[in-house]
Amino acid sequence: MASKTLIEIVFHGRGGQGAVTAANLLATAAHQDGNKGVQAFPSFGAERRGAPVRAFARISGDEIHLRSEIYTPDIVIVLDESILDIVDVLKGLKPQGNILINTRKKPTDFPFSNQFHVATVDATGIAITHDIRVGGIPVVNTPILGSIPRILDRVTLASIQDAIRSKWEGKAELRERNVQATQDAYAKTEVNF
Amino acid sequence: MSIVIDTGNRIAAKAAIMAKPDVVAAYPITPQTTLVEAIAEYYAKKEFTGEYICVESEHSAMSACIGASAAGSRTFTATSSHGLLLMHEMLHWAALARLPVVMCNINRVIGPGWNIWVDENDSISQRDTGWIQFYCSSNQEIYDTVIQAFKIAEHANILLPVMVNLNAFILSHTSMPAEIPEQRTVDDFLGPYIPGWKLDIENPVTFGNIIGPDSYIKVRYAMQQAQMQAKQLIPQVAKEWKKHSGFFHGDLIEYFECEDAEYILLAMGAIGAESKIAIKELRSKGHKVGLARVRVFRPFPTEDIIALGKQAQLIVIDRNISVGNEGALFTETKAAVSGIPETSVQGYIAGLGGKDVTYQDIETMVEKAMTGKAAHQLWYGVEEDR
User: Fold this and answer.
1) Domain A7-191: which CATH class?
2) Short-list A41, A47, A114, A52, CA closest to A87
3) What is the reported pLDDT for B375?
4) What is the three-class DSSP state of A22?
5) Which residue of B has its CA nearest to A56?
6) Cis peptide leading into B269, omega within 30 of 0?
7) 3-state secondary structure of B346
8) Chain A: nearest CA to B170, how far in angstroms?
9) What are chain B's domains?
10) d(CA B360, nearest CA chain A) in Å
11) ipTM
12) pLDDT of B214-227, one tens digit each?
């Protein structure tokens, strides 16, 4: 799994959707898969619930010396489809880069699918199925992590599930629902490449 | 040993608690908040069994640390920006009273304009308080430096407070791997704090009482001697910790690709990490450049910088400005090499207010400096916005 190549990932979501937690869990999982250098960080500054937010992750086989923001991601992950109307999520995405979107649509429904590798998953539907909610609202950050191994070979579903289990240590029932949701997302992710 | 992937703030808290302080007194401020929250979690779980004093201001936080330290306690606190500035009077007090308080400062902008991002004006403006100052560039270095800070501060020949600086968000809120040793490794390395003197109701004495000019000048002289001795002790402690933990982040300076360098870049904090990529890129273009990441700003590594000045032309990036003059590292570097006529020092101000400094920015600055015309300090990233 480990490679020297640096992979840079940007999560787009709305404040409260757990983009930062997703980035952290991804970094933890990637480290377990032998990637010695990992980073996860929020977009810096004051975040507001519901406003568009970003979170970032880096994965590398070596120690990471970068301390600047990610401007040219390899992968973009969109937790909330409505963000597509107000944020240029493709900005800086590398040619042939991957974009994973939480949506009920298919990859080819997106006009940019001829330019980029598009993957889609109905993470909201999966969150509802597994009753992963905070304050009644479905939470998509953990389900969508299950889709990442489908578009990135540097991290395994098993490590993502381990990271989730460690995070919710002591809350067995909630933990297992999250793990099942990633399993479901992994199976249901559609890719056009 | 275990590897944790966590933020700089939480790793700093972990280190502080593993040093087993008797007293922590703190007041929350963005972006330090998650550090003191983590200590509160350790307290709630009884993994931190010392006193955790919730105070009403940073001035009180430092005052409580001073009182606790004077009573012989190992003492820790953390703050940032305006919080550090509110401590200013007591920072002098802690140092003049020779109290080995250890503090993390999360480098954050001073307002107005109100801004919570990184620059180093907060701690640089406290450089004359007598505190030893470290600047970290990774979460591993934060862990190792906080542990080392107690050893240095409490050393009988030093007895000065130590400030461990970490850049706002870039380190405080960024998760990176850090290797955490076993508790007994830290215990063996640090041992208990054995104060040479303390406030003790069984043995009542007065400290910090009124003294005349003849004595006061000796107080300052002794502080200066202790800071000069710290130049020897800090590298010793770093090497000793390496034997315990395996990690070494440099002496007063971390050198990177300096052996044959004709130009050496000096930088601090997170820019010092990002610069390593710039140096690799510049080397791949055939430029003989190296990096001297200044880890310790007080005591100032004058002798090490003289050695660099004898070898190479120097380029300095400051994430601070002493308004009316220059960036502090630039000024002090020039002063250090003033006796070497053939050495030029060129400087940049960059990254103030949290403005991102990428390795491409650093490459641009270094390449421009290598054309060698600027004798004064240049501002990077201002022109583009005009």
Assistant:
1) alpha beta
2) A52
3) 65
4) helix
5) B174
6) no
7) strand
8) 6
9) 2-245 (3.40.50.970), 253-379 (3.40.50.920)
10) 10
11) 0.95
12) 999 999 999 999 99
